[in-house]
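Convert to structure. Protein one:
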Amino acid sequence: MNFIPLPGAFGERARAILAGELAPVPARDAATVVLLRDASPDAQDAAGVRGVEVYMIRRKASMAFAAGAYVFPGGSVDPRDADHAVAWAGPAPEAWAGLLGADVVTARGLVCAAVRETFEESGVLLAGPSADTVVADTTGDDWEADREALIGRDLSMAEFLGKRGLVLRADLLRPWGHWITPELETKRFDTRFFVAALPPGQLTRDVGGEADQVAWLRPAEAIERAGKGEITLMPPTYRTLTEVGDFGDVSAVLGSDRKVETFQPHIAEVDGEMRLILPGQDYRMP
């Protein structure tokens, strides 16, 4: 089905918003990164295609937004992410502004947030000592201390990169999608989705940031498990998994000619029932 019923308090809130009696909460700029690696050779399908695996985190049950759901690393833009002091390599913020459909300041903040949140929640750092190198190892107590300081906002991304002599590698990201949280929600995000490959030599963390469980999953496996009710996927995650799952390897994903579309589920009343209408393909609720 392409809608989710809104019973009880959810329906009442939706009806109040439609009637203009309640103003939606403003959506905060956010970024999320679909971190990819090629599937192992023994995981190829009947046609001999290996496909990709995606790094996913299960959000803690205590989280106010998407509690218990499997998601990609990501989070809100920190105002300091747009700081010009962030050492930068790759496409300039002006180029990203065109790709993301945003102003230059917002684009700079989104790309920096994508790199920062990926490190905070997976331990993977899309940065290097120069414009054509990438950090090979982010394990160790000193890296963990910096990761915790970033999470606690005791350290800005500019300060983190500066103290280590690193530059943010904007060229390792590709724009993928744009989702805006429905007006119904009390916490809303205006989120740009990016894709990136796991850098050679780097390892993801077992648990990090807001996660209580992590896993590398083939997109089809994640979708199948959601269908069985084993895991929870939100509509943006579900759709993104179906999209990247169509590619044979990571290089094909990164090399695709991708046009970013904007999606926002909306509320509607149908035959007296309040519903959240989902854009595009069907989303099969478990």
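Protein two, convert as well:
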Amino acid sequence: MAGPRHEKQQGELAESVVKIKRCSAVVKGGRRFSFAALVVVGDNKGKVGWGYGKANEVPPSVEKARKEAMRSLVSVPLEAGGTIPHVVKGRYGAAQVILVPASEGTGVIAGMAVRAVCEAAGIHNILTKSFGSSNPVPLVKATIEALKSLRPKSEIERLRGVTLS
């Protein structure tokens, strides 16, 4: 079901529904439909999480996915200007994502799934490229894996024993 993302503010966390899939099973009386929802939540200040929920109707599946996303929050180091500290690659299954920091005013250059994760994390300027699978579920997972592997500039300076400009 390709359509506009639904965004809701829940307390301090912003929620966006990335994808809703409809599945049907053929039974004796006809078809039985079920729904699966992929939801990304974030506080726009460096915390982001994702969830996947399945139910017989859309609202319960979105609620299940939102609850799972709240439990899977990870922290993302952000630079001044709303970008990431360095280039990073993320991979999950057949999906691969490259995230490149961008200068002020660039915006979020990304597809639907990667954009939802970046916006929920509070990243305002970034360039992205995805390779392999275009399925939103592995793309979201690959993006989160990439964001988890980011290290702030201060940590890199400490580990190397130098100061970076």
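The chain has two domains: 6-74, 76-159. The chain has a mean pLDDT of 92.
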